[in-house]
Amino acid sequence: MAEAHQAVAFQFTVTPEGIDLQLSHQALTEIYLSGLRSWKKKLIRLKNGVITGVYPASPSSWLFVVIAILATMYMRSDPSMGLITSLRILLKDGQSLSAQCQTVVSAVLFSTLLWFSLIFTMRMCLKQLLSYHRWMFEQRGKMSNTTKVWVALVRIFSGRQPLLYSYQGSLPNQPVPAVKDTVKRYLESVRPLTTPDEFERMASLATQFESSLGNRLQWYLKLKALWASNYVSDWWEEYIYLRGRSPIMVNSNYYGMDFLYVTPTPIQAARAGNTLHAFLMYRRKLNREELKPVSTVIPLCAAQCERMFNTTRTPGEETDTVQHWQDSDYVAVYHRGRYFRLRMYSSSRPLSPREIESQLQRILDDPSPPSPGEEKLGALTAGDRIPWAKARKEYFSLGVNKRSLDCIEKAAFFVTLDDDEQGMMGEDPAASLDRYAKSLLHGKCYDRWFDKSFSVVIYKNGKIGLNAEHSWADAPVVAHLWEYVLATDSFQLGYNEEGHCKGEVDASLPRPQRLSWDITPECQEQISQSLAVAQALADDVDFHVFSFRDFGKGMIKKCRISPDAYIQLALQLAYYRDRGMFCLTYEASMTRLFREGRTETVRSCSNESCAFIKALEGGEGVEVCRRLLRQASEKHQNLYKHAMTGAGIDRHLFCLYVVSKYLGVDSPFLKEVCFFGFYNSNKAPQAVVYTTPPQALLLNYNISHI
């Protein structure tokens, strides 16, 4: 209870002698420093908002424009062509300023208007320049003169020292492809997968759609594109992610692994100390916008970074919502069935790695048992969404349960101190790697909080991992965070000779706060039901991870073949050899060249890839196979480039389908597309729900530089 007393700023009691007031100077100091930290962050956001708002210009450029205008006026020249004089006349009506002051104020007002006009012009020019994508389709190493001029202009208009979000206002909106082009690409993508009769039927439906309903739906879609930052992303987030009623564990969430062959320290609390401190360092850079925009010449949209921390997915009966808080000074920790609140700041400063290690060791050494129903509470986030939404409303909307649930949901992120050991170890490293991956993907189905933006898992032997919720961002954004954390942990923070974090410990730090719960038998029954659903799903996952070390992208590039195209063709060849047929193949491509862009589908199975595989399996000559391989590779690259530049197939068709549902009209072609595509729709008149195919074969690969 000592920690509870320390948290109270003042106490008073009424005695016969009067009121006895007791102040806690430590608590008041913490309140003051916490408020000071909050105001500092607000000022930083305000400053960055101004800098980003005037980019690609700078705030100091305003002074340059004012001085330039005043200098030209001093030379008895009027650069405003009479506008300054008109402003001076308006100011003269007030009779409160001298003639000289009126002239100066008029010049400053004109300079400010001119400055804003220049900023708007520069931003529009940069937006138009960033809309140019022909460079992507040019042969590598042979840049056209047009592209060379374009690169020079982009560098001129891009400004200097951009903050993370500086380019957001200059990124172009994602274009809406023509219905005719999308339908043509769709028919081309399904041709190798259909019989002649099926294709003829599909082509007939497509022609009918293109000449009738398609134009009407397209008009509404273009209308949305005029006012929305991105015509796809909000519907994609809502209908593909948030309206899904099946478990997000396995179906949606994804994971990240630690270094396979290196573990910086075998001490669990020490590894956690460095890891959590590295996350705080990244969040500080993110809040201050000190992270450089991901770009070489062309910047990528950084909008997905905004909800990285202090974010949770809240269940609803019809649709979930993503909630984000501006700040959080603690993390939620799970260990042996108990939940803790661990403050990450002391006296307005972040805890050092050594201090975090000490605090986590206190949790590891805590012998207290979990309260009834607490141990498997996280299973609610792993099961179906509707039961979780109802349970949340009925059992967690008041009292101690609401306070504890709020503590988890408003935490910066979630941490699991796992009692298992994972990694490549033992007599069968391959099998241990499979267990490691499955542990990160679903764990025990109750020891991760799958609704949090991401959960960090710290294993007993010092291995770490990450499980991320998918709706708020795509994997490349989380991968950037994860790479920073791993690199900072190993190469910047480091450990002492005993394997502990470096630094000293403040002995006065309060202990981590244990969260309290009052979970009724009815709620425990719902937890058991959700756990059964999640466990059945986890048991149905066949998972295998292996390390291929014979060669990597270096050798593939020497053959002048795209590494990604090579892998995709290899996967299709393997599938054909296993099943004797081709299948619809989904590869995700990013559309972050556009504002608030997320992903697009690359339909990797093409006429060219099928021709290559059939020739290879049919025993054709080496030269024939080599020629078909290059054609298939070039086709795949072309498909990928079209997807990246907004000329994909599936997102456009998906949005047309959503519009048709809003209008209450049916399209046989769009129904056929959804049936034959990667997502299925339910029967509700105005709803589209994503469901992962139960027999889907999901593959993930990372190509090394060997």
**Name of the CATH superfamily of the largest domain:** Choline/Carnitine o-acyltransferase, domain 2
Average per-residue pLDDT, rounded, comes to: 89
How many individual domains? Answer: 4
- Coarse morphology: globular
- Tell me the CATH topology of the largest domain: Chloramphenicol Acetyltransferase
Radius of gyration: 30 Å
Separate helix tally: 24
Total beta strand runs: 15
Structural class determined from secondary elements: alpha+beta
Widest sheet: strand ordering: 3-12-11-10-6-7-13
> What's the CATH architecture of the largest domain?
2-Layer Sandwich
Beta content: 5-15%
pLDDT below 50 for ≥5 consecutive residues: which ranges?
1-8, 679-691
- Euclidean distance between termini CA atoms: 57 Å
The level 1 CATH classification of the largest domain is Alpha Beta
Task: Summarize the biggest pleated sheet.
Answer: 7 strands, mixed
**In which range does the helix fraction lie?**
40-55%
